Amino acid sequence: MALREKARLTLDLTRYQDQILDISGYFKGRVGDTDDYLPVYITSNSLPVDMRGWKYEYGGVDSQGYAHKHIYPVEANDRNDQIALGRVTLHFDERTFNVPGHWQQFFVRFIGRDGQTVSTVDMDFDVIDDQFFAHVGNAGRDYIEEFEQILKQVTDEGNTIKGKLDDAGETYSKEFNDWLTKYKQSLSDAMAEVNDPKDGLFARYNSLLLMTQQIQETLKQAQFHDRAWQFSDVPTMQSYAALAANDLAITKGWDNYDDGHGAVWQIRVKHKDETPDGTNVIALSNGMVAERNASMVTADSLEDLLYGYEITIVHNQADYPEPKVMYYEYAIGTEPNGLGSGPSGFGQTNTKLVPCMATYPDANTIKVRLPRNFYLDDAPNFESSAGAWYVHDGYKTIKVSLGNVNAQLALTGEDKGKSALAGGSGYFSKPTSPTDLRAIYIDEHTQRLEWRN
């Protein structure tokens, strides 16, 4: 590749047809060149063209019949280039002039910033010595004539199609209206079939839905609760890792299997921010909790639950007094950590009037029966100052008042009373393991537990 100093070819994008430029002094292509380039000055009507953002495409068919097509952005990276004034250099890469001889066709096309072709220059040249001629304008005329022919063909074809559509329009419209009428009638017939009160699809659907609900209810009634776990005491239940949500657990006692504090527990997931109270809700080692289910009691254990704790008092009043029972905690003198160390400082807390039932073996003795959970491990003692009997167990106290009593006669029965749990009924003392325990669904919120056999 050789370039004469300060040589630049002027190309006018609006140049007249059939002009031939002798560019032998501007460009000399040689086989094997790796970067051929042609410095040009681009004008339009002899005025410089701002080539920023433009592209140029070149290609054609060489002497061996191989097609070439290359596209590059117009750049001003050579000496003396000024892209804003149309002074640029066109580069032809190493894949262009691979073989010598006469090119069958060669063109350079300039593409504007909007992507549209602005001008195409056809060149006719041989890769020989120093002569290189460009015939400017021929390609432009050929492209315009070809475009006009294609445009005419498209226009004629469009007119033909439009005529056919116009002719068929009325026929299609009539056929469509007929089809629409038939469709509406078919739809009306189908809706009548669906809504038929006897054999319609809607009636059949309701019948099937009712049948499904009956089957579901039957399946619910037939379900077994196959995970009723048995434990001797609460600590054993707490440490059993296999317990899962919705399981049912039965403890025979609280600390021991025969202490009379058995219960039924529903296993569930611990609620967010929940703190188990240790009495009605027990924390398990596996992260679950066991919630006391007081509704799960059998008929033979219900009375034992409500009146399973018995206090016997020998009062010697020769009467049948009506008892009044109070329960309270942390009375003065019973605080574990010293006087005034209860939750409220001085004075009793958690005071309750306890429901009770009385039986009278004779006119001088009364048996007061209380719910089992109030059991205290102590015998009743009469206190003359209060005229009542007291049962103490740590910080817990039960007071039994029999009204106005003769204190001297009451003291004669001291050391004859007792406080004990009733035994022998239900799983609250020594339960029997169930062999056929079933949960019967009453509704979506309620179940009934049946212990058969």
From TrEMBL:
Pfam families registered for this protein in UniProt: BppU_IgG (PF18667), BppU_N (PF10651)
Gene3D superfamilies attached to this UniProt entry: 2.60.40.3320, 2.60.40.3350
Domain of life, source organism: Bacteria
Domain Baseplate upper protein immunoglobulin like: 307-402
Residues of the BppU N-terminal domain: 7-156
Protein name: BppU N-terminal domain-containing protein
Organism of derivation: Limosilactobacillus mucosae DSM 13345
